């Protein structure tokens, strides 16, 4: 069984390695426009991530029914 001092040293080395990897990673270039393509998700995952009728929304794409009226998901568009 390891002593407490050995465990602390191992944890410190691991933490230092993780920090070193984070520091050495490069930021995104300035020319990158920030738009990401959405990955395709399964139908079940899309249904679970959609907002139900009566939930607040900003866009038609957020609602499970695809109708956002007066910032509330609804069944009808008008």
Which structural category fits the helices and strands?
A: mainly alpha
Gyration radius, rounded? 24 Å
Count of helical regions: 2
Question: N-to-C SSE series?
Answer: HHEE
* Poorly predicted tracts of residues: none
Strand content: 5-15%
Main sheet attributes: strand count, strand direction, barrel closure: 2 strands, antiparallel
Shape: elongated
Query: In percent, how helical is the residue content?
Result: 25-40%
Cα end-to-end separation = 70 Å
Number of E-type strands: 2
Note down, in words, how this protein is organized:
- By secondary structure, the chain is mostly helical.
- Helix content is 36%, strand content 5%.
- The protein has a two-stranded antiparallel ribbon.
- The termini are far apart.
Characteristic terms for this protein:
single chain, 78 residues, mainly alpha, two-stranded antiparallel ribbon, 2 helices
Care to give the gist of this entry?
By secondary structure, the chain is mainly alpha-helical.
Topology of helices and strands:
Layout: H1 4-24, H2 43-49, E1 68-69, E2 72-73
Antiparallel strand pairs: 1-2
């Amino acid at each position: 069984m390891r002593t407490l001092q050995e465990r602390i040293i191992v944890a410190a080395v691991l933490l230092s390695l993780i920090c070193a990897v984070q520091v050495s990673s490069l930021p995104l270039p300035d020319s990158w426009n920030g738009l990401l393509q959405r990955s395709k998700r399964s139908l079940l995952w899309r249904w679970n991530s959609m907002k139900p009728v009566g939930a607040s929304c900003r866009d038609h794409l957020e609602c499970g029914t695809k109708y956002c009226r007066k910032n509330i998901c609804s069944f009808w568009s008008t």
